[in-house]
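Example with several molecule types.
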Amino acid sequence: METKTERIYLWRRFTLREAVLLCFCATFIVLTRAGLRLHLHMPGHVMFFTMFFMLLARGFVPKLGSVTLVGLLTSLTSVLLGMGASGPIVLVKFLLPAVLVDLAGFLVPGFVTSALGCLAVGVFASITRAGVSTGVEYLMGMEEEIIIGKALISAGFSGLWGGLGSLAVPAIIRRLRLNGLIDDGTEGSLDA
Amino acid sequence: MANVPAKGGLRRSLRSCDYGCQFAAHDSPVHRVGAGTKLVLGMLLSASAAGGRTPATLGALVLVTLCYYLAARLTLADLWRDIRLFMFQAALVIPLYCLVHGTGKGLWPGIRISTQIILFYLPGAVFLRTTRSSEVMRGLRRVLPYRVSFLVFVSVRFVPFFFREIADITAAQRLRGAKLLPRQQLNPRNWPDLFNCLILPLMVRALKTADEVARSAEARGFGAHRERTFFQADLLIRNAGEAGTAQQSEPSAPTEKLLQGNEGRAVPRCTTR
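Resulting structure tokens for the full complex:
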């Protein structure tokens, strides 16, 4: 468990232990992404574990910026491991949902223990990811009607998978908190 | 990755990599170009793809991008692996266009957009196929603070560790009767097993490992200073070689050379506290 004597390591906010824990969440996203890309070819399925681990990261470290850090690390690790074919766009693909989860955490600090809260955030954040590829298509000059049609299909699948992944988070967070493995998130409300 | 002939037969020998955008270790002109140059070149090609609307421009762009791809000594099988996902997307976009405008009017715009999207992403695939992780890492270190680049490194370093952990936990839980086989996971009724028997123990392991890594790094004084030094064996050997030549004329040169960083500025000496 964290002690009061721990030195702040990153962004005047995270201790080294918290930063390493968040980077493990990024590792898990990359691992599951790699595993799924080899076996499944279903649209949006990547969001299942992406949202699961992003919300879990928020539960582990209930501070503003924690999920953004996970998003940043995931995109950089993906590029390093050869999973970021979309180039710089991979940064936005992970950062955008991460920032949204952080924003939700800022507005409703305790949402990770609520199934409904997690579902709403998971679906909404997953849908924004679909919006990134829509932006690229708009740049290519695709017609708005087609963009909307395709975006709806893509957002629907992403939202569905993201929502399913998010639903599993509250139970895990509650069990880890009950066993005293993570903080309950009530202290340091300014950070949250 | 190098080719492994024999067992898989002809199909396996046709491709040089196992999955899309995986680094392929060849000796090609594109491999020899620096990571920064490749990034700039890729961005130029992607930007051109966004601008190319006429058949002539698009044809020329396809030709240039293909030449760039094949100059990296990548095969057509590799190309298929890299663009496979976008081909599925094309299979969605072209019928959508045909549905809205009719086959006659909608076919060309559908093909054009699909080609543009493939051309937009392909230079990124070439970058990943031809650039080593260590090169990207070195580049990252120049643009990112060392505290963040350390986390990226830890993230990459722990991929095989957690992969082993997942395999170990899965094996142990399956012996206890947990339904964790991929085939069994197709049934949603077995999903609680996935979360209770695999994910939860994995999270506990991650929490403990994070604790150990942080304690271990802090015990070594990591993160105590704003700047840090890096051990770069290749730079050390090169500088030592140059210093050896220069030693005859100027005796003080080796020490200064060895203390030079990548950008030519002096790096702080390692201190023990």
